[in-house]
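lol forgot to send this yesterday, sorry. struct tokens for the thing we talked abt
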């Protein structure tokens, strides 16, 4: 037994179970409500615009408050932040599940986003500070990557089951059970103390206001672009506001003594490259979640439950990529030798999915495409999560973890807006020449946007190849703090 193993918390693997359960709950909520929305709309009687806001309310508060949530975890302590956030998330979910009108549902979704912004960075930073041996760290992040990658697909399945058999409200109420288990496990098995430096530092309120305002404006801008077009005045105004606020945020971070986001966290080429590659990966994979769901239900006639089941093989592939490929190879191979090939495998999956027509079968096209995409992205997520938190000082673990989630949220917003715009434009062009072939035009738009997703994943592979030069430390030694390379 090495010195590292002897000093490690013997309860760390039990703690990981409950940490990952909280992560699964967060990721589930990004998709579980999608299938339930038509039922909720009929029950509460809200307009189509309200349906969009049910998703947007969660995304805005989650994406906007992530950096602040990460720094709060560093200062207050990751364990109390985890417990408080999971409890608050359960309470917000209960409010939504019991909603009597649209206002209550939207308020609940916004509150879920607030507590998710506290919980998500705590989840990742707890893993980063709990597992310090190289091999164990890779294994823990492999399990985490499996939860992060497959959670959206599991959400589609669970949403279909709950909506079909129990009702849409249970897609929210189920979080109470997840949160209760996570909190009980955290109280029993998680040990963590905030660093003295982090606790003593003053909270950067100007930075928090600028970062929150800038991220909210950015995510909302992409939402407006998706709804009204990229040249819509509202979208352009929001993008301009985001640029101003985020530029001011960077200026403030360079001058204050205790910045919300120390620039050393993102200027390290490996962490910065990991954040950018993750952003592009999430943006590209949204092609599959956006369009294959609609394709299976509206073109192939799948029920919500059948659609959820259709995504299960991709979940298995992601878990395999995370725990069997990424977790095994990340401690042995340079990231540059692992990430670009894995991203190209994922891109190949989208190439296969882009072959869909109104008449192709699930087994011949959709299934093999999903398997390639899942294997590639599962491998990538494991490596990215390790890189994004490797070498950070303990007082910065929460904010480095928050940047991972920020990259995912911004990537999702970009992917949703950009790819949906491409699909809509492509469909309109096709229908102008084939007015009667509406189904074929819709599928043509889906396929075109999926090709765009392929290009985005290829760009992510290029970013990883050019920016990331991390090499694994010797096995079973504590993770060291490398000097930033720029």
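and heres what i got for the seq, position by position
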């Amino acid at each position: 037994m090495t010195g590292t193993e002897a000093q490690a918390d013997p309860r760390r693997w039990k703690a990981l179970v409950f940490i990952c359960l909280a992560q699964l709950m967060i990721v589930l909520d990004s998709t579980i409500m999608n299938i339930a929305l038509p039922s909720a709309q009929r029950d509460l009687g809200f307009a189509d615009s309200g349906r969009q806001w049910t998703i947007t309310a969660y995304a805005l508060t989650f994406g906007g408050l992530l950096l602040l949530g990460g720094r709060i975890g560093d200062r207050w302590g990751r364990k109390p932040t985890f417990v408080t956030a999971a409890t608050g998330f359960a309470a917000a979910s209960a409010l939504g599940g019991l909603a009597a009108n649209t206002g209550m549902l939207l308020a609940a979704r916004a509150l879920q986003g607030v507590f998710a912004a506290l919980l998500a960075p705590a989840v990742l930073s707890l893993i980063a500070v709990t597992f310090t041996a190289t091999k164990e760290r890779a294994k823990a992040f492999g399990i985490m990557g499996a939860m992060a990658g497959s959670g959206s697909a599991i959400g589609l399945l669970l949403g279909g089951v709950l909506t079909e058999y129990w009702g849409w409200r249970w897609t929210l109420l189920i979080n109470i059970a997840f949160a209760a288990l996570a909190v009980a496990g955290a109280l029993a098995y998680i040990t963590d103390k905030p660093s003295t430096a982090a606790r003593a530092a003053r909270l950067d309120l100007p930075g928090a206001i600028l970062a929150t305002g800038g991220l909210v404006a950015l995510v909302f801008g992409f939402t407006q672009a998706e709804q009204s077009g990229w040249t819509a005045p509202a979208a352009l105004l929001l993008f301009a506001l985001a640029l101003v606020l985020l530029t001011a945020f960077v200026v403030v971070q360079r001058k204050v003594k205790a910045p919300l986001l120390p620039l050393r966290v993102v200027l390290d080429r490996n962490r910065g490259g990991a954040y950018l590659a993750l952003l592009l990966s999430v943006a590209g994979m949204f092609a599959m979640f956006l369009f294959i769901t609609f394709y299976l239900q509206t073109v192939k006639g799948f029920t919500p439950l059948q659609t959820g089941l259709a995504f299960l093989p991709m979940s298995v592939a992601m878990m395999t990529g995370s725990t069997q490929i990424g977790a095994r190879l990340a401690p042995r191979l340079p990231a540059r030798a692992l990430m670009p090939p894995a991203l190209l495998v994922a891109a190949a999956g989208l190439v296969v999915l882009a072959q869909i027509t109104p008449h192709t079968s699930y087994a011949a096209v959709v299934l093999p495409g999903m398997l390639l995409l899942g294997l590639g992205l599962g491998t990538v997520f494991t490596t990215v999560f390790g890189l994004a938190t490797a070498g950070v000082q303990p007082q910065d673990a929460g904010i480095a973890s928050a940047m991972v989630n920020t990259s995912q949220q911004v990537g999702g917003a970009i992917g949703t807006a950009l790819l949906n715009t491409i699909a809509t434009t492509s469909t309109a062009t096709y229908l102008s020449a084939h007015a009667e072939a509406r189904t074929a035009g819709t599928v043509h738009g889906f396929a075109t946007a999926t090709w765009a997703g392929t290009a985005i994943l290829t760009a992510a592979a290029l970013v990883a190849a050019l920016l990331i030069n991390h090499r694994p430390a010797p096995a079973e030694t504590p993770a060291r703090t490398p000097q930033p390379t720029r």
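Residues 397-433 form the longest helix (37 residues). anyway ping me if u want another try
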